[in-house]
């Protein structure tokens, strides 16, 4: 969630979500352009339910959401923190 804040993306947690496997999992709805992304997050790991892709950590999430390569994602995160 800190990464989403650093990227200045609007996000909202789903208070009605009940995790099945890990009780620390949360569902987040992220506004991205004109579309929305639904993420399941457990600690640093995340999964985009609509795209069927997941990863771990801020760089992976930035690469996925903003469609950047590794170097561009790292630079983007450095500039935003």
Task: Write up what this structure looks like.
The structure is a single chain. The protein is α+β, with helices and mostly antiparallel strands and 81 residues long. The chain is built from three helices and five strands, in the order αβββββαα. It has a five-stranded antiparallel beta sheet, covered by helices on one side. Helix 2 crosses helix 3.
Write the H/E string, N to C: HEEEEEHH
Distance between the termini: 14 Å
Taking strands numbered 1, 2, ... along the chain, how are they ordered across the largest sheet? Answer: 1-2-3-4-5
Mean pLDDT: 95
Question: Shape from CA axes?
Answer: globular
Count of discrete alpha- or pi-helical segments spanning 4 or more residues: 3
Strand-residue fraction?
A: 25-35%
Which features characterize this protein?
81 residues, alpha+beta, five-stranded antiparallel sheet, 3 helices, 5 strands, 31% helix
């Amino acid at each position: 969630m800190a990464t989403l804040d650093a990227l200045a993306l609007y996000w909202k947690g789903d208070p009605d979500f009940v995790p099945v496997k890990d009780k620390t999992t949360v569902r987040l709805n992220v506004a991205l352009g004109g579309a929305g992304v639904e993420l399941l997050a457990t600690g640093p790991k995340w999964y985009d339910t609509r795209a069927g892709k997941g990863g771990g950590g801020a760089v992976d999430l930035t690469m996925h959401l903003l469609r950047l390569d590794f170097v561009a994602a790292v630079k983007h995160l450095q500039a935003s923190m």
